[in-house]
Structure formats: structure tokens, C-alpha cells
Amino acid sequence: MDKFTTLTGIAAPMPLVNIDTDMIIPKNFLKTIKRSGLGANLFDEMRFDREGNEIADFVLNQPQYRETQILIAGDNFGCGSSREHAPWAIADFGIKCIVSTSFADIFFNNCFKNGILPIVLPKEQVELLMKDAEKGANARMTVDLETQEITTSDGEVITFDVDSHRKHCLLNGLDDIGQTMEKAAAIDSFEATASAVRPWV
Amino acid sequence: MSPKTLYDKIWDAHVAHEADDGTCLLYIDRHLVHEVTSPQAFEGLRMAGRKVRAPEKTIAVPDHNVPTTLDREKGIENEESRIQVDALDKNAKEFGVHYYPVSDIRQGIVHIVGPEQGWTLPGMTVVCGDSHTATHGAFGALAHGIGTSEVEHVLATQTLIQKKSKNMKVEVTGKLNAGVTAKDITLAVIGETGTAGGTGYVIEYCGEAIRDLSMEGRMTVCNMAIEGGARAGLIAPDEKTFEYCKGRPHAPKGAEWEQALEYWKTLFTDEGAHFDKVITLKGEDIQPVVTWGTSPEDVLPITATVPHPEDFEGGKVDAVKRAIDYMGLTAGQKLTDIEIDTVFIGSCTNGRIEDLRAAAAILKGKKIKDGLRAMVVPGSGLVRAQAEEEGLADIFKEAGFEWRLAGCSMCLAMNPDQLAPGERCAATSNRNFEGRQGYKGRTHLVSPGMAAAAALTGHLTDVREVI
Prior knowledge:
A: alpha/beta; 8 helices; B: alpha/beta; 32% helix
């Protein structure tokens, strides 16, 4: 997994609430057996018409947001289907950080597995960042995971919380499976005890 | 010992390792797998030279992509869908997991097959790369959806890295009125909490109206816990649960059954256990409901009208404007005036035998509205066979419904069953998102009885007028 340390880049505003994973990556792109290449179809039905032409007023099609690396999103981002194709598409497009007042649980987990940092902030702070993002390409934000700070284009600093284990994994680009396998003895011993108590499982 | 909730008890019984910061390795008893969210996980194992740790606890079945037309034995026409199903076929064999191929009568939607085959049992932890894994909570099993990286993690280690969620109690008191079903309960709860109201929680549903539901109804309720944002939904097991499990192919037998039963009877929330949030609904107040918008929280009684955006606050105002526009509706319009052109009965929410019985009871001896497209897609091959035996299939066919083979079908439209742009569907499925049932398709979520009623009249209809 790619490390996430600091990121300075363009932030795009997406204030719509309840953006679901069907919007992020529609089902016709779930038929792949690979993880790569989904960025071309990120937000496909909002971004392109049926003929494949760009819909001009969609935020990521606007010239100042084409290189977006940070999304400032409305409440409950990533709700719905568990499809990890959603964070795969987001990362493949080049977006590495999403800020919202709330995220759906499964999507939130999936982000951390793919080097994306989802940040939850109170409403007022998300609104402040939304305004900053609306300024466009000349306004760049910086997200520093080590210090847990976002710096706006005006130099205003906002701190955020992140789970310590997840922070450690993102900073170091650690693979979960490898780490868990180091605890194989604990799993073996759990299995032995559990199968004595609940042999039908 | 301090009193525990049902969730606390199941959680505590499955912690294989706990780190200082509270991050746990939760042991997984059953891992269900389907073709869409697993190919990259199996590929990951292959690349790292890893095996499936517990193939005997891993159950695979193709459901999302499979055609449900009667000629499906001739194969899947869409190349990408075929490749995905073939990949599952190959992976199941190579890694030695339990497998129900398309040709097997036991094939069906993974969340219907699991309980039907007795894989899902009380007190278990169940995961699947699918958000509707919440369904299995109806058995008092801790069940939730995971992403593909986590699918790979469970395949390799039989555990999941987790932190404990908070406890929420949703109590539905009293009796339901005629025409009101489990689907109306679960939608009414989401209408109350909103789609993010459950975020960070595991919900335990309780109260007389929940107790009175059959196992099928309880599965419908828990299925949509995820639509309210909850990690999982749970219902404490009782005699109905035990009766449902008994004799299923993978349920324990003999002395082991007795031992299991003794354990399962300890699976309830202790008196005085702490819930972080409590919501109470009166069963008598719940009416047959329908969704008007593009989020499951956009739900109202069928007797209501399309709301005005200005009735809402904050970011929801723009979302409602967008939803009304997308759905082709007018604020103030009566919901019963909304004309439909498609009816879909099926899905992991409402594709079980009881759902088909409820719809057939409305349709018996009647014909659907001329020109309407209507289909029933049973949740599994066994549900289909039972419905044929009970004469339900004939009722559907005589009424003008297509009688399909088992799969997810038009719930998410990954197979050829899709809405065309602008088409409007009364669906018994679980999501009314933009494009969910097809590009620019419009979905109204309803119970099976309401879907059948709409099929008869050609517009959204109060089921109480036709029972």
C-alpha cells in the first residue's frame, strides 16, 4: 500500500449529501477482476453523458479541479454498497484525502486499505474548508497526517482525529494481512478454545 | 459481572487478540463470498502465496451477475460477467471452499442461501463482501459487509481488524396493522433515523412487533440496517429462530444440537445493559410506506404527498431538489398518483418464500395492468421450487408476471435486468439510488404486497385497498 504522510493539493467541493457508492462508481464498472483503471469512470453518471461527453458543470470537469487530490464532501459520504471499487476509483483518479462530517462505515474502512485518508470534522470546519475549496486551483490545502493538521490556503490550521493504529499503517504503508499473520499464535489458540466450547461452528 | 447487550456477548466471544489501543482481531465463523467482490481478493492470495485459512467456513455462490432468464444454462452472454462468474468457479475449486454453482438448485442470493443451508446460526460472526450481510443478524449473529481488502484478510487469517461499535436499541412496540409488514418497519426506522443515524452503531431490534415477525420478516428488517448506516442489525434468537435452524443441512445435529441450543439460549441482552442510543416506534403507528426520492430515508406513508424541498434543512434541501427532479415528480403530488411501468419482486430484502406468498395473495385470480412489465425473481433455486410446489408460480404467471430463476437481478441491475432511462419501478429491493436499477431509472421501494398492488393498478397503490 502507498504511504500517506503529507499532501498538498487542490481540493474540490462536493456539498451534496448522501453521495453513495453507486454514484462514485456505477455497477457496470464492477465487472472487472482487477483493482486498477477505475479512475476513468469515477462518478461516471455525474461526469459524463450517455455518449461519453463530459458534463461541463460537474466539479471534476471544471478546468480548475481536474487535478483534484482532496475532496470536501457533504454528510454521509460513501453510503450504500460495500464495493471497494469506490475507493479504488477515487485513488486511481488521484484523490488521496476526503473530508466530511460523516462517512458510511464500510467505505470509511475501505479508504484506509487503499492509502486514502478520510477525515471527519464538525460541520463548521467542513463548511470553512468547502469555502476554501470553492476558490479553485490557486487555493491549495495541505494535509499533514503526522501532526494531524489541515492548513487552508489562507494559512488557517484545523486539527483532526485519526485512529492511532490506522494512522500508523497509513504513515508506513503497512499491509494488514502481514501484520495479522504475525499474530497467528493468538488465532490458533482462539480457534482451539472456541471449537471446544462451540464445536458446531 | 456487569450486564451485557447481545452485541457485547457475541463480540466478547470472538475476540482473538486485543491491542493496547482497543484494536481487536475478531474471529469470523462464516465467510460468504460472491463473484463481484472476491476476484481481486483471491488474486491477492495467489500473488502472496497464501492459502484460505478455513475453507470449511467459507461459502461461495455467484448471484450478482447471473442471468435469471429461463435459458441461462446456455451461458452468460456478457463477457465481463462471464469472466467474473468463471473466476469464482475457478477460485472456489482452487482454494477448496464450499461452492454452489449456477447449475445447482441451491444457488441463489448469498444472503438467502446462507440461512437456508444452515450456515448462518445464532451467536456467529458472519461477513461477506456485500453490505446486505446485515441480513444474517436476524438469527442473533453479528453480520456485516466488508470491502475486498477485508475479504482477502478474512480468507487469509479468518479474522477481521475491528474496533467495537456502540450499542443502539430500536424497539418496535405493539401490533402491526393489516397491510403493514417487516419492510414497512425497516423503512419507517430509516425514515426516523436517517441514512447516517446508525453510523458507528450496531442496532438490536426488539419489542413485540419484532418478536411477532417470522424469521423471513426479521431478515427483511436486519437486511436494511445498513441503509440506516449501522454496521449491523441484530435480533435475539428465540424459539422461532431455533425452529427455523433445526434440520437445515449445516445446522448441528443430535447431542451437538442440544449443546448449541443451550448456548443459543444465553444470547439475549441482560436486564439493565447499557445502550448508547434508544429509538422507540409504536407498531400501531407504522403505515404501508413507499420511497419517493433517491435515498432510503426519503420514505413516507403511501397516503402522503411528494414533499417540498423547503420542508428540509441544510444540505438536504439541495438533495431533495435533485431527487425530485431525478425522479420526475412534482412537490405536492399524491404518491398514489405516481404511475409506474415496471414491478420487481425479489432481492435479498424480499426474495424469500413469505414475500412471494404475500405478493401472490394480492394477485390471485387477477391480471396486472396492461403494458406493465413485471417480474418475480426468487431468492434461491429452493425458494423457487417451493413456490412452484405451493402454486404461487402459477398465480404470478397467470397474473402476467415473468417467473424467473434465482439471482440479484434488477435490485442492482448488473445482469441484463435493467430499467431504461426514465422508466419507473415499484421494487421490493433495498436501494433507490440514482441509476441503481439502470441508468436514469427511477425506483420506489415498497413491500411485496405493495408491489403486487401497484402491478394491478399501474400506479403506486395503498395495499390496504386491495386486501
